[in-house]
Amino acid sequence: MLIRILKERTRLEKKILIVDDEEDIRNSIKMLVETMGYEVKAVDDGNRAIDLLKKEKFDLMLLDMLMPKISGLATLEKIRADSKIKNQKVVFLTVVSLSQAGEDIMKRLKPAGYIEKPIDNVVFKKTIKKIVES
Hints:
Elements: H1 2-13, E1 15-19, H2 23-35, E2 39-43, H3 46-55, E3 60-64, H4 72-81, E4 90-94, H5 100-109, E5 113-116, H6 121-133
Parallel strand pairs: 1-2, 1-3, 3-4, 4-5
Helix pairs in contact: 3-4
């Protein structure tokens, strides 16, 4: 029982940042992540995410690849170029299938994972838990 309580307490202390320009998707993912017991913040733009990362520590960032102001790839490039936040764990969320060129970019930017939309809740939860708890 004590171990279970300690695990739950640890999980509650973990923070996840969601970055998606579509409000309904952002809110759906936020609710799903909150059911897992994590603290969640959500923003609609990559630049806002970078500003937030410079102020707060997050255990994981879930980043949409296709956004209008700044793409997820450009956002992650900026993160990797900033010495203060370059080690941020990032999982891409996208409807895009990766080409060979995309796979090469992924190797260079080193995201912690890649989840395709529409999201399979079981796979999503398993992937997020594995990355956050590692």
